[in-house]
Amino acid sequence: METQEAWRRKYRVNLDTPRFLLRPLTLGDVDWLAELHADQEVNQFLWDRAETPEKARRNAETVVSLDLMRCQFGHWAIQDKSSGAVHGWTELSKLRPWSGLSDEIALSYVLRRASWGHGIATEAAGRLLRHAFEVAQLETLMAVIMAGNTASKRVLEKLGMRFVKSAKSAHGKRLEYFRIDAPPPENIEK
Q1: Which residues pair with 178 in a beta bridge?
Q2: Which residue, among 33, 34, 36, 35, has the nearest Cα to 45 in the 3D structure?
Q3: Beta bridge partners of 111
C-alpha cells in the first residue's frame, strides 16, 4: 500500500507558474479560507454560501479536512511567490451530481476581491488544467459556473474551454457547463 508521503508526492504536488506557487491546502489555511467564505461578494456565485462567520469557518474547516484525505484531486492554494500572500484557490474535483456523468472532473477557482482583474485565475487555473492533462492524464475537463458570472466565463474561454449547455440546478440556479478535451500528447505545452 502506498504511504501518505508517497501518495502526496505523486498526486498533490506543488505547481509553479511565473507568479504563483500552487500548493495543496494545509491546516494553516483555515483562517484565510474562512475569510474568503465569509465575503458575500466573493461568494455570490458559489454553491454553498456562508451566511454567518461561524458557517464560513465550518466550511473552511471542512474544505481543509476533506483536502487532507487521500484523494487524487483537491484544492491548491494560489500563493504569490514575491509577497507570500494567498489570493484564493483552484481545484480539481468530481463534478457534483448536477447533471452529467459521475466520473467527470471539474476545474474551479475562487479569488479574494483584491485579487480580481489581475489574470490570477487564468494563470493558476491554466496551470492546474495542464496538470490534469499531463499528470492525471484526464481526457476531458469540465467547469460549471452560475449564469451571469461573466468574469469566470471569460477565464474559461481564455483557457480554451467551450460552452456545452445550460441547465437548472436542483435549487433552481441557472448553470452553464464548459468543457475542454486534452490536446494530443505532442501538443501539450510544457
Answers
A1: 143, 163
A2: 36
A3: 88
Contact 30, 136 (CB under 8 A): no
Q: Do the Cβ atoms of 23 and 75 come closer than 8 Å?
A: no
Give per-residue pLDDT as tens, 64-95.
Answer: 888 877 566 889 999 999 999 999 999 998 87
What CA–CA distance (Å, rounded) separates 43 from 37?
7
The predicted model scores a pTM of: 0.86
pLDDT in tens, 92-130: 988 765 444 456 889 999 999 999 999 999 999 999 999
Q: Which triple of cell numbers denotes residue 62?
A: 471542512
Length of the chain: 190
Provide the 8-state DSSP code for 94: E
Hey, what amino acid is at 20?
F
Can you name the residues that pair with 90 across neighbouring β-strands?
Answer: 76, 109
Any residues with CB less than 8 A from the CB of 177 and at least 6 apart, and which? 100, 142, 143, 144, 163, 164, 165, 166, 167
CA angle, residues 60, 140, 96, in degrees to nearest 5: 35
